[in-house]
Amino acid sequence: MHVLHVTPYFPPTWAYGGIPRIVHGLSRALAKQGVTNSVWTTDALDHRRAQVPPRRSLDGVEVFVSPNRSNRLAYGQQLYAERPVQILHLHGHRHLLNNVAVAFARRHGLPYVFTPNGTLPRHERKVGVKRLWDWFLADAVPRGAARIIAVSRAELGQLRRAGLPPERARQIPNGLSLEEFETLPAPGDFKARWGVKGPMVAYLGQISPRKGVDHLVAAFGGGAIPGATLVIGGNDMGGLAKAKAQDHDGVIFTGLLEGPERLALLVDADVLVYPSTDEVFGLVPFEGLLCGAPVIVGGDCGCGELIAEAGAGLLVRHSDVEGLRERVKALLSDRASAEAMVRRGRRYIEQHLSFERVARDHAALYAEVLDAKREAGGRRETS
C-alpha cells in the first residue's frame, strides 16, 4: 500500500493551525507501522514561502513540494516515487491542490479519502467567496471521496447537513504525538520570560471571532479575576481580541508561539481556556492536559464532547462571559479537582488519541477502500 497525503500546509508551516501538525504526526506514525506514505504539499509558510527543497525526507516520509503559485500536480515527482501511489488522502477543503489531486486520481483510477477537519462549513470569513468556490471548484471533492473521515460526532453532523452520503462517513479522531510531551520545559520558564506573577490563564491558537477569545478577554475586565494574568498566544487574525484588551490590565498578547515556547506556555498555564464554537476537534486542550494544564472548552465543539466523555475539564457556552469567569475562578480555587481532571484527561489521551492508535485506524480504512475497489473491479470483469 502507498498512500499519498495531499495538504497545502506541512512543517515548517505552523501558522495555519492543526492540519500541518496532524498530517505530520499521522504520516510519521504510518511509516513506523510499515505503511508506505508520502506527502504532496506547497511552500506556504505565512506571508513568506518556506525555504524547503522540492523533495526531501522527513521522519521516514517523502515530502514533495510544489510552488504555491502552481495549479498542477508535480507528476515528475509523485509518479517516480519508489512505489506507485494506490490511494490518496486529501486533508482540508477549498484549496486548488485538492482539485488537481482529484483530477489526477480520476485519470489514473485511484480512490481517495477526504478529511475536511472542520473546513467543510462556510462559516466565519469570506462566506460569499467560499460559496462561489464550492459552486465552481470544490463541491465535487467531498462527493467523489470513497470515504470521508470525521474527527468527531460534531463533524459527522456537518457531513450530514452537507448532504454527503452517510455510508461513506467514518469517525476517526485526530491524534497526538505523545513523545513530544515526554520532555517538557521547566515549570516557571514562561512566566519568568514574560514577567507573569501569580496565576496564569492561557489561550493558545489562532485568534478569530469563532474562537471566542474576545469573550475571554471580557471575562477579565475590571479586575474580575484578581491576581490572575491572561496570556494569549497566537495570531490575532482580525485584531478584534487585541482591540478589546486595550482597556484591560493583566492581558498579554505574545503572537505566534512555536516549538518549546508553545509547550512552555502550556506547562505554566494554571488554567487553559479554549472557548471556541463550531470546532470539530481542537488539539490545544489535549496538548494542555499532557502538559498538566486543567482546561475549559466550548461545549458545542468536538473537543468538548471528548473532554466531557473523559471527565477531563469544564465546558462553557460560547460567548458566556460570566460562565467563563466563574469556571476560571473554580479551577483556580479548587486545585485538587483541577488536578484530578488532568489525570483523567491524560489517561484518555493515552488510550484513545495517540497517533499509534489513530494511524492503525487509518491504515484499516485505507485497506477497506482498496478492498472495495478490487471487489468492484472483479464484479465488472465477471459481468
Plain-language structure description:
The structure is a single chain. The chain is α/β, with parallel strands linked by helices and 383 residues long. It folds into 2 domains: 2-175 and 354-382, Glycogen Phosphorylase B (Rossmann fold, 3-Layer(aba) Sandwich); 178-352, Glycogen Phosphorylase B (Rossmann fold). The chain is 42% helix and 17% strand. It has helices at 18-32, 75-78, 96-108, 127-138, 140-143, 153-161, 189-194, 213-219, 240-245, 259-268, 284-290, 302-310, 321-333, 335-352, 355-382; strands at residues 2-6, 36-42, 55-58, 61-66, 87-91, 112-115, 147-150, 169-171, 200-204, 229-233, 251-255, 271-274, 295-298, 313-316. The strands form 2 sheets. The chain has an 8-stranded mixed beta sheet with strand order 3-4-2-1-5-6-7-8, with helices on both faces. The protein has a 6-stranded parallel beta sheet with strand order 11-10-9-12-13-14, with helices on both faces. Helix 1 (18-32) crosses helix 15 (355-382) and helix 8 packs across helix 13 (321-333). It is globular. It starts with a strand and ends with a helix.
